[in-house]
Write a structure and sequence with these properties.
With 387 residues, this protein is α+β, with helices and mostly antiparallel strands. 37% of the residues lie in helices and 25% in strands. The strands form five sheets. Strands 7, 8, 9, 10, 11 and 12 form a six-stranded antiparallel β-sheet that branches. It has a four-stranded antiparallel β-sheet with strand order 1-6-2-3, covered by helices on one side. A four-stranded parallel β-sheet has the order 14-16-17-18, with helices on both faces. The longest helix has 20 residues. The radius of gyration is 24 Å and the shape is elongated. The protein binds guanosine-5'-diphosphate (GDP) and manganese (II) ion. The site of guanosine-5'-diphosphate has 17 residues, from strand 2, strand 3, strand 7 and strand 10. The site of manganese (II) ion has 3 residues, from loops.
């Protein structure tokens, strides 16, 4: 789950991470009032669940309340398009108004779960403010990493050593080390999947401040953070993902043309590989989950078909708790409800009641290609892509 910058800054500030002074405005008047209280110079920032706002015109330094009101009026209620959003962008409903910071240096700080390191990793770089992926590509030596031992936890020396590696002024090594420790504590205690400060600004008067902040949370841990759930902002998310969440379906929108419907996360990952080996790209990741009924299967197909870029649907069901005949009836249910949305399907079914499931589909009016295995599925995709 993602939240807005202003919400992330509130949380980080509770953990002792220094952030600029400011507040949230929902109208141009509120933005102007905030600038008055901040003393005239401020930065006004569109609040959307996407980065790249600076380059997209979503961040503006202003020198007066009037200028802030004008910028807020121009951006509130519009959709902001950044390189991280789709071409239609995401709606701006509020702006964050903060004291303008005199920047001496922009650093990068990130905390992520790293599968290869089997734990939490802190990433730091003196090349902040820009996209960290580019820094990692062009100047990998500028990326510092520290792996947090899952048993020992974060060690204060790790923060100091990262701060030292950032070539900071000696007086900043301890405060930045402490800031990194606080960021890690926020990450762990809130079950984050990402905590990022980019840029971490060193001000001209020698302080370290989180000028931007991003926190993402592990959806599977949200049941332990009921208070965070109120930050969920459906308007910022992909419609299919919002629907999927309602039905407890694991769905992630991707940018290919083959929709995938699978039961089991590992099988879903393997299925996306099958799509790629068939010469196409997956339109989504989708795991229906184990205990699905007809209705949930129908919802899964609805969600996949609601994505206009889907040209072909690949179904890969390994019947266990979810029986193949139940899955087949679910597909028919969705197709009957929205016959015009239906697209050709390649179906591989194996396991409990597979014969029955295949019979139901082949006797239906659906455009279904039944395949026996994954290489058959890849072949059918190749045929569909080429034709
Ligand atoms: P993003 O583009 O969505 O990541 O938004 P950021 O919050 O990172 O803002 C983009 C850029 O605006 C930052 O990298 C800074 O260079 C600049 N910026 C943001 N706030 C301030 C500020 O208070 N003072 C100055 N001088 N620059 C700022
Ligand atoms: Mn940023």
């Amino acid at each position: 789950m993602k939240i807005h910058e202003y919400q992330a800054k509130r949380i980080l500030s509770e953990y002792g991470v220094p952030v600029p002074e400011g507040g949230v405005a929902y109208t141009p008047e509120e933005a102007a009032n905030l600038v008055e209280t901040l003393g005239g110079n401020a930065v006004v920032k569109a609040q959307v669940h996407a980065g790249g706002r600076g380059k997209a015109g979503g961040v503006k330094l202003v020198a007066s309340a009037a200028e802030a009101a004008e910028f807020a009026a121009s951006i509130l209620g519009t959709n902001l398009v950044t390189f991280q959003t789709g071409p239609e962008g995401v709606p701006v409903r509020q702006v964050l108004v903060e004291e303008a910071i005199d920047v001496a240096d922009e650093l990068y700080l990130g905390v992520v779960i790293d599968g290869a390191a089997e734990g939490i990793v802190v990433i730091a770089s003196e090349a902040g403010g820009m996209e960290i992926e580019e820094v990692a590509d062009a100047t990998p030596e500028k990326i510092l990493r520290a792996v947090i031992d899952p048993v020992l936890g974060f060690q204060p020396f790790q923060g100091r050593s990262l701060a030292y590696g950032l070539n900071l002024d000696g007086s900043l090594v301890r405060p930045v080390g402490a800031l990194i420790e606080n960021l890690c504590r926020a990450f762990q205690e809130n079950d984050c999947s990402l905590a990022e400060i980019n840029p971490l600004v060193i001000t001209t008067d020698g302080r370290a401040l989180a000028v931007d902040a991003k926190l993402n949370f592990d959806d599977d841990a949200m049941f332990r953070h009921r208070d965070l759930n109120e930050f969920y902002d459906a308007e910022q998310e992909d419609e299919g993902e919002v629907e999927a969440r309602k039905y407890d379906i694991n769905y992630v929108k991707l940018d290919g043309s083959v929709g995938c419907i699978v039961n089991g996360a590992g099988l879903a990952m393997a299925t996306m590989d099958v799509v790629l080996s068939g010469g196409a790209k997956p339109a989504n990741f989708l795991d229906i989950g184990g205990g699905a009924d007809e209705d949930k299967v129908a919802q899964a197909l609805n969600i996949v078909l609601s994505d206009k870029s889907v040209e072909l649907v690949l179904v890969n069901i390994f019947g266990g708790i979810l029986r193949c005949d139940v899955a087949a009836r679910g597909f028919l249910m969705a197709a009957e409800a929205a016959p015009h949305a239906v697209r050709p399907m390649v179906v591989r079914m194996l396991g409990t009641n597979a014969d029955e499931g295949r019979r139901i589909l082949s006797e239906s009016s659906l455009d279904v290609t039944l395949v026996d295995d994954l290489s058959g599925a890849a072949g059918a995709i190749k045929d569909a892509v080429v034709s």
